[in-house]
Amino acid sequence: MARAVTNQHKTIVTVAAWIVAFLIFFPILYTIITSFKSETEAIAGFNLIPSGTMESYQEVQSQYNYFKPFMNSVILALGSTLLALLIAVPAAWSMAFSPTRRTKDILMWMLSTKMMPAVAVLFPMYLIFRDLGLLDSRLGLTVMLTMINLPIVVWMLYTYFREIPGEILEAARMDGASLWNEIIYVLTPMAVPGIASTMLLNIILAWNEAFWTIRLTATDAAPLTAFISSFSSPQGLFWAKLSAASTLAIAPILIMGWFSQKQLVRGLTFGAVK
Amino acid sequence: MATRQTQTLARFMLAPSVIMLLVWMVIPLGITLWFSFQQYNPLNPIRDGFIGFDNYVLFYSNPAFLQSILNTLILVGSVLAITVIGGIMLALLLDQPMWGQGVVRILVISPFFVMPPVAALVWKNMIMHPGYGVFADISRFFGLQPVDWFAQYPLFSIILIVAWQWLPFATLILLTSLQSLDGEQKEAAEMDGAGFVSRFIYLTLPHLARGITVVILIQTIFLLAVYAEILVTTNGGPGYASTNLPFLVYQKASLEFKIGQASAGGIIAVILANMVAIFLMRAVGKNLDK
I need a surface site. Which of B94, B116, B211, B259 has the fewest CB within 10 A? Predict the structure, then answer.
């Protein structure tokens, strides 16, 4: 009896889920479609079939030099992620394998720094950046993004490292492995998946950060968030160009995001939901 | 058991993170606190000096302050309500067997990966524009007058955009939480004749409680700081109709150069965020002990 009901049930669920999914995804889909329209087509009313022209993509590059902010985004996201890992891996490591009475407090305190509203320190940060000559520089912004995401990176690595059984380390030590060999042959292979997941999530967060990247840049270091924001006061027909720029800005991270659903849950809930 | 040597090593490994975060937090916050008690205007430096709590009084007595606090609370509250209720419903739907579940999940989660300026501009221009947006096309199709969303309902429009960005997050967390529900318990409840509603109230909802708490707390932290979505759509207007606390602080500092008042506002924002943070820390801390 249950089987017959199940198939009908499954059909209803499938239809409902696809409708909802389509509606939620629609703004993105429509942006992608519009990016392949000409400007006159883009404002000619609702139309899901574009003429397939690539002129908007060409114009975004020729008029606005799109490649520059794109490369800035890549450099900032990768740079800040690698820097954060460099600082965070040893920290997470030591807390996971040599915990002390204060480890929990330190972790909680790190989490609390993430909760400081950025706007509260806008002016001090501006002063510090100005005095250090870091305004509108990729270096300054890389450091900024590193610090913003450092708590999440430490936390996420910590939850991964904690799952590596300590007995394995002891066994290796008993067998006479040196600290160096221990790290290279025993720990690294076990830690790599966790580090990779952390990296993925951090790249996504850094790519999409939209406060400091807008406020502390002008032209030289402006990544895509700042570039796209400059479209907020349109001049003339720009729907198709906005769509093309937007599509290019979200495509790489959208694809990465699809592969990181599980890590996202873990990273953003600080291990509270697995 | 750990030798003294490894303990020392552990401290050295931990130190850079702790020191950097400490410096990064204490110095800027200290400067903000200092400025919050100063009259400081880069354009008019003659009257600069210590003025006690005047900045707080000025910021507090500004009619825009009350409105911005109210807007902040409405924004956070509405988005939380939409995403939590919508997220539970979506999670329940997606948890059931269907064809193409993987693709559906990918489509539903996608808005979360869209950077805030893109999300806001796409909604502003492609969807909600009174002339060329999809909503306007739909209105005209039914013979209705298109609505100028950002002029007539600015705060609602921003709520809609932000909710669209965060609904996937709530759905994903709650779906993950739902999938850890013991299947045998569900079956047992079914066998005992519990209907969908009572199963939901007595079994599913209590199980989801933890996930819901986490969603609410984490989203609140981010929602209290909504900025780019406002900047590229309404710019806080018309008037202060869609100005939230962070945006007001930004306006005071970057547009009016009232650094003292902006700093006082910043400190208020810190206090607000900390009130939420305490609860989040408690929820996360509990989990750490297990």
Answer: B94
Q: Which residues lie below 8 Å from residue A270, measured CB to CB, with a gap of 6+?
A: A111, A152, A155, A156, A159, B284
Placement of tokens 């290796």 in the chain: A172
End-to-end CA distance of chain A: 35
CA distance B110 to A267: 17
Asked if B127 has any chain A CB less than 8 Å from its own CB, the reply is yes
- A274 pLDDT above the threshold of 80: no
Both tokens of B254, joined, read 């970057």
Q: With CB atoms and an 8 Å threshold, state whether B134 touches A46.
A: yes
How do residues B65-112 score in pLDDT, each as one tens digit? 889 989 999 999 999 999 999 999 999 999 888 888 889 999 999 999
CA distance A90 to chain B (A): 5
Most confident of A60-64, B157-161, B236-240: B157-161
- What percentage of residues in chain B have a pLDDT greater than 70? 94
CA distance B282 to chain A (A): 9
Closest CA to B239 of B63, B119, B102: B63
Q: What are the CA-CA distances from residue A165 to residues A91, A170, B13 (Å)?
A: 18, 10, 20
CA Rg value for chain A: 23
Query: What is the spatial distance between Cα A183 and Cα A180, in angstroms, rounded to a whole number?
Result: 5
Instruction: Please report which helix (H) or strand (E) contains residue A228, including its range.
Output: helix A224-229
**Residue B266: which pLDDT band, with cuts at 50, 70 and 90?**
confident
Q: Quick one: how far is CA A16 from the chain centroid?
A: 30
Q: Does B266 touch chain A (CB under 8 A)?
A: yes
Higher pLDDT, B151 or A237: B151
Any CB–CB contact under 8 A between A221 and chain B?
A: no
For residue A79, the distance in angstroms to the closest alpha carbon of chain B comes to: 17
Which range among A154-158, A222-226, A233-237, B79-83 shows the weakest confidence by mean pLDDT?
Answer: A233-237
